Amino acid sequence: MIIRKSSLILFTTIFINTFLIFSQEWNVNYDESKVETYSLPSILTSHSGMIINNVNDWEEFRRPEILYSFTNHVYGNIPGKLDSVIVKITEHGNYLNSLAKRKQVTLTFIKNGKELSTDLLIYLPNSIKKAPVFLGYNFQGNHTVIDDKNIFITKSWVPANEALGVTSNQATEKSRGEMSRRWSVEKIINAGYGLVTLYRGDIDPDKDDFSDGIHQLFYLKDQKKPEADEWGTIAAWSWGLSRVMDYIEADEDIDHEKVIVFGHSRLGKAALWAAATDKRFAGCISNNSGEMGAALSKRNFGETIEVINTAFPHWFCGNFKKYSKKEYMLPVDQHMLISLIAPRPVYIASATDDLWADPKGEFLSAKEASVAYNLYGISGLITTTMPQPDSPIIGVVSYHLRTGVHDVTDYDWEQYIKFAKFNNF
């Protein structure tokens, strides 16, 4: 795999500079001694005060309560269903000296006489008839995931990025394979797994404009943006992952019962919500997802609800705006989001230098969520103490703190493959 050091350095520099600006503007806290006392909502106490102590009550009463609160206060409701979906295999071939097969598939969503398409990039090991897969979005286009000349260059809107040759929001040949360091495709294939990925901008461009993504297909007459209780971009991305799952269920080359949904950073937030809302995902991996991903929001450490609602107002539903600077009023926190994935395996990953994402808050969230797993006779996270860097805890609920910055590395993928094998995927 070719790693372009210039791109790696530039991406890291952009990330650090961006969040230094955010940190100064919003006086973000990075001092553990300044984390004030906070109270987390109880996972196992219902709104009526009933203590949940068995799987049936959890599944029938408490889990739906938590899901409802997240939907209406944070992520937003999906306003209807598609009229139809057209599936077209647009390209296929071999890769890695025929160790893997490549497939490109276009899904076209149709609603109210309008349509929107997304392209899937699929790599599967030839050695396995029905392969388990990792499914996740990429940030800059399928063609950036690996240096393969056969991958179509996205025609969707792409954020301007000089390092990738994107100066007018249009991807170019220069960006081919530029993000391959984040996708250990050969390592994944050699371990017996496949990869399914799609560009986030196909479903919804990551900007405060709801006119050119999936939302506009569902608008009523004269509607210009989602209502206050309707989906933002994170929920739209999660919805998109479920639509890919619809396709996977019909793909005879993929084991649809062994699909692990994966996401990094803001896409890790989307992956967690997808796993919470769609039980067809057999497992979930959240890589450096931070605030409103895996980290506890009530700690007020690193990124906060106020920062998200100001810098990225399109990510969550309109109702979520009222909780800026009022985390204590939010009836849920992210340990409850992870609990919605139980009893399915989940992996939460942090990085030592990624204080913006609050590694400790991510660990505590996984630890607190373990009580839901206990109902199913599963131990959950098997430690109460945050592990040292590069000392992964692999189980049904897994966690690691990697040395380094906000990124996805070969080290991360090595742990995710171990996680998949441990849980018999």
Automatic annotation (TrEMBL):
GO terms for molecular function: carboxylic ester hydrolase activity. The keyword NAD does not apply. It comes from Fermentimonas caenicola. Keywords: Hydrolase, Serine esterase, Signal. Coiled coil: none annotated. This is Putative acetyl xylan esterase. Residues 194-377 form the 4-O-methyl-glucuronoyl methylesterase-like domain. InterPro entries: AB_hydrolase_fold, GCE-like_dom.
